[in-house]
Structure prediction request, 354 residues.
Amino acid sequence: MRVVAAMSGGVDSSVVAGLLVEQGHDVIGVHMKLHDAPSHPSVGAKRCCGVSDVLDCQQVADRLGIPFYVMDLREAFKKAVMDNFADTYLRGGTPNPCIQCNGVLKFQVLLQRAKALGASHLATGHYARITPSLALQMAADRNKDQTYFLFPVKQKALAQTLFPLGGMTKAEVRAQARRMGMITAEKPESQEVCFIPDDNHTRFVREHRPGSEGAGNIVDQSGRVVGQHDGYWRFTIGQRRGLGVALGHPVYVLSVNADSHEVVVGPNDALNRAYLRANAPNWYRRPSAGEVVQARIRHRGDLLTCEVMEASEDDLVLRFPKSARAAARGQAVVLYSNEVVLGGAWIREAWDAE
Prediction:
């Protein structure tokens, strides 16, 4: 069948394209041009989506003998990812651009472009699997599993998606790249936030939303002012470093108020929450009230046992018997039953008691 292979210029997507060719598919390589962020000397080769990545894609495509195209998705990326990133921080939340990129760009916009090229499927280098019932399943390599980032992908899109690396380890992927003679075989991993090469999200927010005022007070749990800051969007729930306050004991960000510009800090145990509410869920199987499942509230975070209090088409409420630490508004909570993703939603609030 005709398959579009999303090619980033890294080893994973290169192997995907190679495996598909070996399987006899009619493969078209596509690279998404997402932004014009300048390179930064501190990240070097770890930055993705640059000119060198396009050249690597072209060399891989030439070696495989497949057509290769660069699709300009900068405008769509700006609206779906970059604008959302800045605005979520300005609302006092913590954004997750990789989820936005996957949920909107790759499995909506790019999938539509693939179909326009006559392809039946889009293949990507994500470490995930798809069940026969069209649900996400954890990758065989748990250390590389990316199902947390993929929860917004609809079942209709999964029916037209291939994850050839889902059953492989990273070491096996690199071995395949060496076997195929790929130029990307030893290429290092790219950083997550590709459009902020210096990893300074505070600078990005200021430049992307000029004129935003965010200075305010840092206060303790009693409301006592213990310091000042020059922008509340610098902070996220659970942050310890860079607070600029000295209280004689470690303190962490407990909450960020976008209206008052106030940042509340306190001890580590004050980050524990028994309940969590999230909205805009995407369900593969909607759990029942009272069902005990596992939840992940950050990428690479532990799987936490929880009870479903409410699961509707609009809302999700969970209770954590052993508490969830540092659940940040704007991040995702993804539910699992064994290895299979039930669905996920966007965190709105967390609290201690009913």
Notes: The chain is about 25% helix and 30% strand. The chain has three domains: 2-180, 213-266, 270-351.
